Amino acid sequence: MHHHQHGRQHGGPFAQFMRPFFNGFRRPKYNVPMNVADHGDHYQIQVYAVSFDKADITVRVVNDQLVIQGTRAHDPANDPNFLLQEYPLKSFERVLPLSNRVDTTGIVAKQENGVLILTVPKKPEVVVEVG
Questions:
Q1: Which of 2, 63, 73, 101 has the most crowded Cβ, counting Cβ within 10 A?
Q2: Which domain holds residue 90?
Q3: Which residues form the SHSP domain (predicted)?
Q4: Phi and psi of 37, rounded to 5°?
C-alpha cells in the first residue's frame, strides 16, 4: 500500500472537482452511443441501445436532467470470451442536462430497430415585446 503525502494535488483541480461527482455514482463500464438533434420546436434523441427491449429502458427527469437507464437480466456465466467489448451487456445510463428549456411532460419514447427514439418538445419561447 502506497500512501501519497501530497494526495491533495493528485490529478489536479479538475480531478478534484470531478471526484465528488463520481464517488457516490456507480458508472457503467461501457455506455451506449447517443445522438441529439435540434428540430426547431423539439429535440430528437436517439439512443443506440440495441438488444435492450423498450421494457428494459426507463426514461425519467431528475433535477432538470433527462436520465435514460437500461437494465436487463444478465447471467455472467454466459459471457462470451471478449477480445473487445464496447457495448454494455447488463446496464447503461445516459444523463442529459435539460436546463429548463424542455416540456418534460410531453416527452415521447419509441423504439425502432433497437434504437430508442425520444422526442422532447421545447417549451414555447416567451417573447417580451418592448414597447
A1: 101
A2: 32-76+85-125
A3: 25-131
A4: -120, 145
